[in-house]
């Protein structure tokens, strides 16, 4: 695939990922929509992800590493914001969930530019049926949210998981939207 086509595909994915997740994905304390279930989180793994993504605190480093930025700041008036999504087309395409190389980096607006707030993992649903979840992925002991329909035309049914490792999220470390994030 040509680089320009990969970039356009990544931008479409970024824009789609940035649109609101279904309410059920964020309604239960950030544990993937499973009421009363606190997942056994791999805390050592979370620290490793934070160390591995520290190099992306500056958005320019993410772009240099192949992430493609969007200028849309994702937010929901009731749930808060996510921020700006930067997706890596190679990671989106290979379908491999590797905690140390998230498919998407989420930057939050600040008085000094964009700051890394969260990482997001993304996986296409194999059967493209929102009623089945037999291929639900997980990362660091956390089941992904979904399956959910694509948020824009052309976006597949998918799963995703947010980890707010760089900015505190009062709604929960694993909840898609952060009430402390405000888009300009």
Q: Can you put this structure into words, describing what you see?
A:
The protein is an alpha+beta fold. It has one domain (3-163). The chain contains 4 helices and 8 strands. The strands form 2 sheets. A 6-stranded antiparallel β-sheet has the order 1-2-3-4-8-7. The chain has a two-stranded antiparallel sheet with strand order 5-6.
Would you spell out the secondary-structure blueprint of this structure?
Elements: H1 3-18, H2 43-53, H3 59-64, E1 68-76, E2 80-87, H4 89-94, E3 104-110, E4 113-124, E5 138-139, E6 142-143, E7 145-148, E8 158-163
Antiparallel strand pairs: 1-2, 2-3, 3-4, 4-8, 5-6, 7-8
Keywords:
184 residues, 27% strand, 8 strands, two-stranded antiparallel ribbon, six-stranded antiparallel beta sheet, single chain, 21% helix, alpha+beta
**End-to-end distance:** 35 Å
Question: What Rg, in angstroms, do the CA atoms define?
Answer: 15 Å
Strand content: 25-35%
Structural class: alpha+beta
The helix tally amounts to 4
Indicate how many domains the architecture comprises.
1
By DSSP, the count of extended strands is 8
| Mean pLDDT score | 83
**Major sheet: arrangement of strands:** 1-2-3-4-8-7
Share of helix among residues?
A: 10-25%
The best one-word shape is globular
- What kind of oligomer do you see? single chain
Given as residue ranges, the uncertain stretches (5+ residues, pLDDT < 50) are 1-9, 14-37
Order of helices and strands: HHHEEHEEEEEE
* Largest pleated sheet: 6 strands, antiparallel
């Amino acid at each position: 695939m040509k680089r320009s086509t990969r970039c356009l595909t990544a931008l479409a994915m970024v824009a789609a990922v940035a649109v609101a997740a279904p309410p059920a994905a964020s309604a239960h304390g950030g544990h993937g929509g499973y009421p009363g279930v606190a997942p056994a989180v791999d805390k050592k793994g979370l620290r490793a992800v934070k160390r591995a993504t520290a190099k992306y605190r500056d958005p320019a480093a993410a772009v240099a590493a192949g992430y493609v930025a969007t200028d849309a700041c994702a937010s929901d008036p009731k749930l808060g914001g996510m921020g700006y999504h930067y997706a890596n087309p190679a990671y989106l395409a290979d379908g491999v969930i590797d905690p140390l190389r998230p498919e998407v980096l989420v930057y939050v607006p600040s008085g000094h530019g964009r700051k890394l707030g969260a990482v997001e993992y993304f996986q296409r649903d194999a059967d493209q049926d929102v009623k089945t979840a037999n291929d639900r992925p997980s990362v660091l002991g956390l089941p992904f949210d979904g399956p959910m329909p694509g948020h824009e035309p052309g976006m597949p049914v998918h799963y995703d998981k947010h980890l707010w490792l760089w900015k505190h999220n009062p709604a929960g470390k694993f909840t898609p939207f952060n009430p402390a994030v405000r888009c300009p």
